[in-house]
Amino acid sequence: MEVSRDEIAGRLDDPTLTVLDVRSATEFDGSGYRCCARQGHIPGARNVDVVDLLGRPASVVRDLLGVPEGSEIAVYCHSGNRSALAAEVLRAAGYDARNYAGSWHEWAAEPALPAE
Q1: Is residue 114 part of a domain?
Q2: Considering the domain boundaries, does residue 116 fall inside one?
Q3: What is the reported pTM?
Q4: 63 located within any domain
Q5: Torsion angle of C-alpha atoms 96, 3, 15, 65, degrees rounded to 10
Q6: Number of domains in the chain
Q7: pLDDT tens series, the chain, 116 aa
Q8: E runs forming strands in 1-116
Q9: Using CA of residue 88, residue 90, residue 91, residue 97, what is the dihedral sign?
Q10: Closest Cα to residue 9, out of 40, 50, 44, 39?
């Protein structure tokens, strides 16, 4: 189950969609892993490192996210691998989670897309 760059870009102001960045805090704030054209994150994204989701009970995962069970979540990382794993964890915790396979690598390469 995947979500596209265009869908996320078109729904940045949609309160029914949570955009979740599962990279490290330094990748999220733009101070680490500088292989992309731009640094930072998708506007409005929340950041929870995938490491903090792994091996946790569903109740802990829901507490970390702070959004109701069943919510729609678009998950991304740098290149789609960590976010694919996180999407599985989130679905197991009761979320409608989809992976953005292009992730930050794809988003950052398109200068017309906003970044924070």
Answers
A1: no
A2: no
A3: 0.96
A4: yes
A5: 50
A6: 1
A7: 899 999 999 999 999 999 999 999 999 999 877 788 899 999 999 999 999 999 999 999 999 999 999 999 999 999 999 999 999 999 999 999 999 999 999 999 999 999 99
A8: 17-21, 46-47, 72-76, 96-99
A9: negative
A10: 44
